[in-house]
Amino acid sequence: MAVFKPDNVEDLYEIGEVLGSGHFGEVRRVRERASGTSWAGKFMKIRKSACTHLGVERSCVEQEVEILHTLQHPNIVALKDVFESRAEVVLILEFVNGGELFDFIADKEMLLESEAIEFMKQILEGLGFMHSKNIGHFDLKPENIMLSDNVSQNPNIKLIDFGLAHHFQQDEEYRSSSGTPQYIAPEVIKKEPLSTTADMWSIGVITYILLSGLSPFQGETNEETLTNVLAMKYEFYAQFFSTTSSMAKDFIQKLLVENPNDRMTAEESLLHPWIKPITRKQAAKRNRSSINMKSFKRFNARRKWKMSYNMVRMCNRLVQLRLLCKGNADADPLQRQCESDVEDTESKPASLLRRRLSSSS
């Protein structure tokens, strides 16, 4: 059982600059006073009333903490400590300072499939360990795939943000409508019972994007994207996949499968010829194939712009909410629970998207 310490986090850690912000708080760099070691502090506002959507429920934080305690793996961000005060919980996490994998790749002029596969192997190894513990991530996307550093020639992958993760109990039937439209599996949209195979669909989408710079199901709106997912509407366009190997396409096709039971598992994916060639011919073919860097750079630039735009919009809405709260000082106290960050509901298609802080855990 994870221990929530009542100590003041500032007694043990110096609080540094903001590394990222989200709907329920922010991530800051912190330095342990005793050792001088840098960590990441995830500061989350706690929901103060059952009738408000402002802040995160303590039970959700407890679940995230328990999951992180269970997942001790080189490719998964590590949890060191948890502190609790009246208004917030602070998670002290491994300081992952290499940035996002997609940003690291976008800085390159060229990347062979064989080089990209080295990153995919680490993602699958971390995911395989997670699934072996009956834990699903349920929010796999480029923002949650980080690098331990950006100076090593072969930095380690770190999977982060376990706010939507779920630990399956024996014979449990679990449903969730949370996630990001272009990465979620069909069974999430259809509100069917979920399993860890939903993560494998997300891996298929991420691989498709990595190789082509094109998102397979992305529409003009969230609703259109979800419709494309349900219709299994995607194809390998020649102008985007001209340098892609047939093995890579086969890898994706074995993951973007409508029936969850027919998708490759993480373990099976690691044995696929694209990841682990059986013959010299297969290995040579990977080394002759490369990702579409021009298209990938465009995709990543648009992705970063959209993230910045959404953050500015969220901050503006928060300011407006605080002004509204000041103007309604005499209103019912239950209607003035404005101390914590506000959840972004405008981007939700029919309550599908319950967003979490996705900066550093």
UniProtKB/TrEMBL annotation:
Per the record, which residues fall in region Disordered? 339-361
Write down the PROSITE patterns for this protein, in alphabetical order.
Answer: PROTEIN_KINASE_ATP (PS00107), PROTEIN_KINASE_DOM (PS50011), PROTEIN_KINASE_ST (PS00108)
Top-level enzyme category: transferase
For whether the record's keyword set contains Ligase, the answer is: no
Q: Which UniProt keywords apply?
A: ATP-binding, Kinase, Nucleotide-binding, Serine/threonine-protein kinase, Transferase
Give the E.C. number(s): 2.7.11.1
Q: Which GO terms describe its molecular function?
A: ATP binding; protein serine/threonine kinase activity
Instruction: Give GO cellular component annotations, separated by semicolons.
Output: cytoplasm; nucleus
- One Pfam entry for this protein is Pkinase
Q: Where is the Protein kinase domain?
A: 13-275
- On the tree of life, the source organism's domain of life is Eukaryota
Annotated ATP binding sites: 42
Q: Does the keyword Transferase apply?
A: yes
Q: Which BP terms from GO are recorded?
A: intracellular signal transduction; positive regulation of apoptotic process
Similarity comment: Belongs to the protein kinase superfamily.
Q: What is this protein called?
A: non-specific serine/threonine protein kinase
